[in-house]
Amino acid sequence: MNLAWRDIRHKLGRFLLTCVGLGLLLGVVLSMIGIYRGMVDDALVLARTPGADIWVVESGTRGPFAESSRIPGNTREAVARIAGVTAAGSVTYQAAETRRAGRTLRLYVVGYEPGRPGGPRTLTDGRPISRSHYELIADARSGFLLGDRVRLGRDDFSVVGISRGQVNNAGDPVVYMTLNDAQRLQFELAPAAARREAVRRPGTTDTDVVNAVVAVVADTVAPEAVAESLRRWKHLTAMTQAEQEHLLLSSVVAKARKQIGLFTLILLTVSAVIIALIIYTMTLDKMREIATLKLIGAPDRTIIGMIVSQALAMGGIGFASGAAIIIAVKDHFPRRVLLQPEDGLLLALVVLLVCLLASGLGVRLALRIDAAQALGG
Amino acid sequence: MHDLQPLVSLHGISKHFGEGPARVDALRDIDIDVYPEQVVGLLGPSGSGKSTLLNVIGAIVTPSSGRMTLDSEDVFAGRWLRSDLRRMRLEKIGFIFQLHNLLPFLNSLENVALVLDLAGAPPATGRERARELLDYLEVGNRAGAMPASLSGGEAQRVAIARALANRPRIILADEPTAALDSQRARIVMDLLRRVAREQQAAILVVTHDEKVFDHFDRMFHLRDGQLDGG
Q1: Does position A204 have pLDDT exceeding 60, yes or no?
Q2: Domain coordinates of chain A in residue numbers?
Q3: Which candidate in A8, A9, A287, A295 is best for mutational testing of the B interface (most B CBs within 10 A)?
């Protein structure tokens, strides 16, 4: 006879309400893990999109994401001539703001050379950029639709393509435009400032500057070897894709990662304490029943089984309800919540372990209940 | 009748709690024999040692000295583990409580069948036996009712059915009529007598309830942990 289930059934409403309460807490834990995963993924998505093997940036910098980097626009031709490099493209990265539906919208602008590495690899709607100017591809998260006009700097751009999952490490949606447009947006001064600059420093208004050059190398060539040869050029430095990703994770999202990890740990500890208190209180409520069970000859394993089963049921239902809630609302979070099955599974195992440990307090109390307590009115 | 072996036999049973100046002698040199089919009353004022004696006979509390046999088993002699005492209670002793102590999350049938389930009986056998007992005690129509919906008399009869489930040889009842009016108290005592007769069981009833005294074959009076007479 399953005493745990019958006791739950007897007070089903209260038990389910407790589970949902616990589920909300576990949902917060799950969402924290999802936010962390989303942050890491967001940080890497920009670096992974070009499909590059090598990143060439300004010497002495760890650009273009961890630090600012500016190199001449003609660097791409020089890189493309290196043995083993099969393709190269210039890229620029910058934050920009525009207005949409009367509200300020932060965007992350990527300038690239259509037909060369650096642009989006897949579109969910529309077409790639085909004109030299005033076209852009926007991520769906920006809310822009095909044909929308977007004001950036002093120019209007037309949305011709929609991508998905393209955000920077701050969660801002990415828009892609041609390198020329991006250079104008980033480096070209307003007319009055340009006239003043031309008078002060004649011949220094060149805007053919890029933030990095991305290169793809042949399958037969080791990216490390190409990067090594590029590092010999004193005004440049080069990183492999793996080094770029490591740099992003260790510098750009390292603190956020630790912060979220700590929060997750605290929340798990709070969950453990709450589960332990709930199980303890449930056991306190059943002291007379447990004493009666002992008196009529129930072995300890029956009583322990009842308490532990209820703790596990509470953890299981709590986790399932928490996961269901977060899956339902994750798209409404300001930052991307990336829920991965392996994270869910790991958390479920941790929750079950916590439930087992937490039920120890209730089990200890139950084992100390004297059978004689059932007698004596 | 007394040619039979006693089902419960206590010789020189003493129980004290604490040591030195804090020592309390709860039971002193108790000798009791109870035979099959006997309904015996255990009387005495509060603090006289009735509960301690019931706990000793119920194999819940180990006596400090003396010898006790239950259904020919020399309980507490040699090494009795907690699990041995638990099995003794499960197989040989039925308990009836003042407030019925039915498990609130089981219905009447499940409360009775639980004892058989704990003893390892197949579920179908347990349920069949539980139904028989509920019918025997005339509460078969309340088999699916939860304890909270039973009247005091019905709950006490279900509790008696639970106490009888494993065909115990000894039934210990702690103030079984305290929460009942005189009519229901008489019905319960008649039931206990019937059980004693039909199942050749020995029944020990701890009570203050004078209106049931005439149902006892014998009465033991306890005072300050000692028997006044028998």
Answers
A1: no
A2: 3-43+255-374, 86-210
A3: A295
- Comparing C-alpha atoms, which of A158, A157, A155 is closest to residue A188? A155
Domains: count for chain B: 1
Per-residue model confidence (pLDDT) at position B156 = 85
> Beta partners for B226?
B223
Nearest to A42 by CA among A128, A139, A162: A139
For residue range A79-96, list pLDDT tens digits in order: 999 999 999 999 999 999
Q: Please count the CA atoms within 13 angstroms of the CA of A369 that sit on its side-chain side.
A: 28
Counting beta carbons within 10 angstroms of the beta carbon of residue A102, is it exposed (0 to 12), middle (13 to 18) or buried (19 or more)?
exposed
What digits encode the pLDDT tens for the residues A274-326?
888 888 888 888 888 999 998 888 888 999 999 999 999 999 999 999 999 99
Residue B140 lies in a domain: no
In this complex, do A10 and B51 lie within 8 Å of one another by their Cβ atoms?
Answer: no
pLDDT grade for A377, boundaries at 50, 70 and 90: very low
A289 vs B123: CB contact, 8 Å cut-off? Answer: no
Contact between A89 and A117 (Cβ < 8 Å)? yes
Q: How many CB pairs under 8 A join A and B?
A: 81
Q: Is B60's CB within 8 Å of A1's CB?
A: no
Residue-level pLDDT at B230: 45
Q: ipTM for the complex? A: 0.82
CB A157 within 8 A of CB A191: no
- Which domain CATH number covers B174? 3.40.50.300
A297 contacts on B by Cβ (under 8 Å): 86-87, 89-91, 115, 118-119
Question: What range defines the domain where residue B202 resides?
Answer: 8-106+153-227
Residues of chain B with C-beta less than 8 angstroms from the C-beta of A374? 95, 97, 101
Tell me which chain B residue has its CA closest to the CA of residue A291.
B101
